[in-house]
Amino acid sequence: MKTLKIFSACLFLLPFVSCTQVANKGSDAATEKKVESLLSKMTLEEKIGQMNQISSYGNIEDMSALIKKGEIGSILNEVDPVRINALQRVAMEESRLGIPLLIARDVIHGFKTIFPIPLGQAASFNPQVAKDGARVAAIEASSVGIRWTFAPMIDIARDPRWGRIAEGCGEDTYLTSVMGAAMVEGFQGDSLNSPTSIAACPKHFVGYGAAEGGRDYNSTFIPERRLRNVYLPPFEAATKAGAATFMTSFNDNDGIPSTGNAFILKNVLRDEWEFDGFVVTDWASASEMISHGFAAGSKEAAMKSVNAGVDMEMVSYTFVKELPELVKEGKVKESTIDEAVRNILRIKYRLGLFDTPYVDEQQTSVMYAPSHLEAAKQAAVESAILLKNDKEVLPLQPSVKTVAVVGPMANAPYEQLGTWIFDGEKARTQTPLNAIKEMVGDKVQVIYEPGLAYSREKNPASVAKAAAAAARADVILAFVGEESILSGEAHCLADLDLQGDQGALITALAKTGKPLVTIVMAGRPLTIGKEVEESTAVLYSFHPGTMGGPALADLLWGKAVPSGKAPVTFPRMVGQIPVYYAHNNTGRPATRNEVLLNDIAVEAGQTSLGCTSFYMDAGFDPLFPFGYGLSYTTFKYSNIKLASDVLKKDDVLTVTFDLENTGKYEGTEVAQLYIQDKIGSVTRPVKELKRFTRVTLKPGEKKSVSFELPVSELAFWNIDMAKVVEPGDFGLWVATDSQSGEEVFFKVVD
Q: Mapping DSSP to helix (H, G, I), strand (E, B) and coil, where does residue 237 land?
C-alpha cells in the first residue's frame, strides 16, 4: 500500500505562504534607492500623473500629449503592440523623467486561449490548474505588451444570483485562498521582472461577494469578526503569495465604501499584512462614492480615497483634477502623495519596465500554442462535475451506435467561453458537437438537432422537432445552460432555472424513454432539480473555455474520468439562498424529524412541525452540497486514525486514512478534510474545509493518505477580536464532500 502525505506542498498551508513569494515580494535597497531618487525629481503634477490610469481611446495623439506632460501612469484596454510601443516610446523618450507606462487589461481566465471560468477551475480542487491557467494567460498577454491584470477575483460568494460568482472560486475561504494564491503565482511567474510575467491584482477588497440580494454593486453588512474569519483570509493569502497590486471593491460595507475605507486599506493591508505594492480603485469607484452619499463631490471623493490609502485611480479622473488643490489646502498631505507614488514606482521597477519597456513586435506568436491548448483541455476535464449517473450510462459504451446531440450549447463557440473574454476568439473554440464528430468518425451516427438556437429562446415547435429526432438515437446528449452574457459583472439573476424553453426541452427528451445525458455549461450553479430528476446522467461544466468540446467528448466516452467537485452549494430553489455548508448551527438546528409541507395535517397545531431551523417546502438539504462530485468508479474511505487525539496549540494534527478504488475504472478522488470547533467564545461553523488532495487510483488500488494540519490553523477571531486557538473539543471528517463521512473527535489543550 502506497502512502501519500499532504503537508509539504506549500500551497496547502495556512497562512498560505507561497513557494515563490520571495521572488515577488520585498524590495532590495537598490530598488528603493532608485524609487527615492526618481521621486525627488518629480513635480507634484508628475506625481499625481503616476496616480492616474486611463482607458485607451482611438486618438493616440491626444494620449501621447498627456503622457508627454507626465499626466498618465497607466493605460488599460490597449492590446495592439504597435500602439503600446508608440505610447511607451513617448513616456520613455519624450516625457521629462522617462517613467514607463504600466499597460493593463482584464485577463481573467485566459487571453486568447480561454480556460474554464475561475469557478470552473475551482471545481478541479487543483491549484496547479489555476496556476497553469494564469501562467498561460500571462505568457499570451505579455507578448503584446500587457503587464498587469485585474485578477484573481477572490471574493467569497455564497449567492449564485450574483453574476460575478463566475469570476471567483466559490463559497469557501480555504479553497479560495489556495486557488487565489496559485493564480497570483501563475500570473507573476518566478519573478515579476520576467518579460512573461504580469502583475496580479487580487480583487475586490473586500466583501463584494456578499452584495445584498445578489445584486451587483450593492451594499454589504459584514461585521469585523466575520470579515476577518471568512472574507479577508484569501486576500492575506494573495499578499503572502507576492501579489503586486490590490483593487478596491464597489460596495460599501456598514456604510463605508471600500475605496474610502482606511481600516481595510491601512490598518489591515499595510500595517498588519505589510503589503508594499499599490492599490488601484475599481472602474470609477472613487467618483461613485458621490452616488453612495459618502462624498459631496469629486473633490471630497479624491480626498477620501487618497487619505484612506488608495494609490491609483481608474478612469474617473478625480485625482488629476482635484489633488493639486487639495494639497494646497492641506487636506491631502504631499507626503501621502509621495507614499502612493513610491508604491507605484516600486512595482514598475520590479516589473523591469524601466529596463525593458517595449514589446518585440516581430516575435513569433505564442497564442494558442499546443501546450496552452492541452493545458486548457486538461483544466476543462478536471473542472467537470458528474452530478448523476444512473444505470452507469456514462461512459458511453461501444454498443452505442447512434447519439443525438441536442441543445443550444452543443455548438455555441462564443457562449462556452464564458464571461470576461474580451480577447477570446470564437473561431478558435472547439465545441462539443465538432469534438464528438471528430472523435467518433464513422463509427457512431451523430444526429444533430439543437431544438433551441440560444439558451433564452422559447420555441415549442423546435423542441418537438428535436425530441422527434432524438427518439431515433441510442443515447441523447443534451447540452443546455447559460449564454456567456447571463453571468459576470452586472449580470445578476433572481431566477436560476434554465432559461427559455430549455426545461421543456429536457422534459420532451426524457419522454422519449431513451437514456438522457444532460450536460450543463453555465456561469453559476443553477436550480436544476427537475432536470436532474428527468435525466439519466448529469455532467456540469462551468463555462469550459476554448477546449471545452474535446474535454467533454473525452469525458462522455470515457477517455477521461470526471473528478470535479462542487466549489459552491447548489440550491434546490432560489428561496434557500444564501445556502452554504459552513453555516452556524443555530440554537434550534433541524433534526430531520420535522414535518414537511405536503405532510402537514389539516388544522395542525402550531408546534407540530418541529420548531427548528428549516424550510417546510425545500426540506433540509441543498440540491448538491459543497464538495460533491461523482466518478465513473467508486471510492471507499476506511481506517481513519489520528496520531494523537489530544494536542497542544503548537502541535500538528496528523490524520491518516485508507482510500481504495472499489470500482472498475481508474479515477481521481478529491479527499477533503473538515473540522468543527465544538464550543467557542463565539459560535463556530458546523464544518470548515482545512485540507484537500487529489488521489488517483487504479481499480482495486488502495493508498494510505495523510493530512497534516498545524493546530495553529484552527485559530479564529474570538469574542475579544483576537486571533487565537481556543482549547476544547473538535470534530473531524475525512470525506468525499461536506455532508459525508464519519466524525472523529480530538481535543486541544493549553
A: helix
